[in-house]
Design a protein that fits this description.
Keywords: Carbohydrate metabolism, Cellulose degradation, Glycosidase, Hydrolase, Polysaccharide degradation, Signal. Helices cover 11% and strands 31% of the residues. The chain is mainly beta and 452 residues long. The protein has one domain (29-53, 97-444): Glycoside hydrolase, family 7, domain (1,4-Beta-D-Glucan Cellobiohydrolase I, Chain A), CATH 2.70.100.10. The two termini are 36 Å apart.
Length: 452
């Protein structure tokens, strides 16, 4: 629901994204094999890897070690404008484990929340699945399903282990923007429906115009431009709450926005993307015991998440879980004014928006048909862990907005206190938090999971 980039930061000698490819640190992508399935029990291994998002990487001059971006400000001598900055600055390789707390073992990827390196302190991360060293794995999931295992037992209130699809360019934007020499290899080209302004390079140019350092994040800022695209949040969760949410835009693919099109502030519902989306959070939809420690889906141990994209054009997004050898259907709605369903359809979305008094930008911008069209064109898989410098993740796991009574329909989203999730608090007290994603599969409906 809120930006996964604007509120995730790293404290490094220099942390930014760039468009030239640096040579000071060799970029070696961790292996994360996945599986493509045609029928139950008939899956083949795909030799996929992962890469770190460009916003976390060291950005320095092409001819040396001078930082192009430090803390939350640009070096305006090296980067007086976007085009000059793109020519002057290089994006370098990543030391995944030591610097970023990212480790891969077999088919499992673990993302640590806080990593104290020899010279730096890193907060959160965002990774992408690669088909090769220079291209993202593209997912076209209409009338297909996607599944993965997840361990959220070490994700407390205020954190979000998010696995989601976004309509990025397969090559990270290299073909579209010749000034982008780094591409997917270095994690370039990010976009989502929040149209984030903290992306340091958009459309092959540095986002230096109008750059303003954040007032509550020493490592983040925002520029004039945002980077927008369709987004399918397959999984946003911690050990307390979980949601899956389609978000749609009126544009195809990664698109740079400015002004009203970005949907900022009071213009949230006037932009080209649906920032709210149509979410299914079991707690918010009336079942307060379905998900969590000791719940029907017990977050104290690992489980499988299955998401099915049914129909062409897309007309339903269905959720299952598998834990302890048992297939668990998603919880059913128990909210006045909404049918007792357990999946996302356009009817569900319309009823939910009415019941909660929310603006229905999802319908206005095309609903599930628009989401299906994006899935047909192809989307990139992001895997992340982050904290929220805007509203402390209360929209996921607490009561939000905080100026409404928790008994108001749609406000209560989880059991976390409204005082929880403050980044400065959890970065100090919950640094050992982590999420592990594993056993990624996709393919024909009912092909990726089984119960004993």
């Amino acid at each position: 629901m809120f930006s996964k980039t604007a509120f995730v930061s790293s404290v490094l000698a220099a942390v930014a994204s760039g468009q030239q490819a640096g040579t000071l640190t060799t970029e070696t992508h961790p292996s994360l094999p996945a599986q493509s399935c045609t029928a139950a029990g008939s899956c083949s291994t795909v030799a996929t890897k992962v890469t770190m998002d460009a916003n976390w990487r060291w950005l320095h001059t092409t001819s040396g070690y001078t930082n192009c971006y430090t803390g939350n400000e640009w070096n305006t001598t090296i980067c007086p404008d976007g085009a000059t900055c793109a020519a002057n600055c290089a994006l370098d390789g990543a030391d995944y484990a030591a610097t970023y707390g990212v480790t891969a073992s077999g088919n499992a990827l673990t993302l640590k929340f806080v990593t104290d390196g020899s010279y730096s302190k890193n907060i959160g991360s965002r990774m992408y699945l690669l088909a090769s060293d220079t291209k993202y794995q593209m997912f076209k999931l209409v009338n297909q399903e996607f599944s993965f295992d997840v361990d959220v037992s070490k994700l407390p209130c205020g954190l979000n282990g998010a696995l989601y699809l976004i309509e990025m360019d397969e090559d990270g934007g290299m073909a579209k923007y010749p000034t982008n020499k780094a591409g997917a290899k270095y994690g370039t080209g990010y976009c989502d429906t929040q149209c984030p302004h903290d992306i340091k390079f958009i459309d092959g140019e540095a986002n230096v115009e109008g750059w303003a350092p954040s007032t509550n994040d020493a490592n983040a800022g925002s520029g004039t431009y945002g980077s927008c695209c369709n987004e399918m949040d397959i999984w946003e969760a911690n050990s307390i709450s979980a949601a899956y949410t389609p978000h749609v835009c009126s544009v195809d693919g990664q698109t740079r926005c400015s002004g009203t099109d970005c949907g900022d502030g009071d213009e949230r519902h006037d932009g080209i993307c649906d920032k709210d989306g149509c979410d299914f959070n079991s707690y918010r939809m009336g079942d307060k015991t379905f998900y969590g420690p000791g719940g029907t889906v017990d977050t104290a141990s690992k489980f499988t998440v299955v998401t099915q994209f049914i129909g062409s054009p897309l007309n339903e997004i269905k959720r299952f879980y598998v834990q302890g050898g048992k297939v668990i259907a998603n919880s059913a709605v128990s909210i006045t004014g909404v049918d007792a369903v357990n999946s996302i359809t356009d009817k569900y979305c319309n009823q939910q928006k009415t019941a909660f008094g929310d603006t229905n930008s999802f319908e206005k911008l095309g609903g599930l048909a628009a989401m299906g069209a994006s899935l047909s064109r192809g989307m990139v898989l992001a895997l992340s862990v982050w904290d929220d410098h805007a509203v402390n993740m209360l929209w996921l796991d607490s009561s939000y907005p905080t100026d409404k009574d928790a008994s108001t329909p749609g406000v209560a989203r989880g059991t976390c206190a409204t005082t929880s999730g403050v980044p400065s608090d959890i970065e100090a007290s919950e640094g050992d938090s982590q999420v592990t994603y594993s056993n990624i599969k996709w393919g024909a409906l009912n092909s990726t999971f089984a119960a004993s």
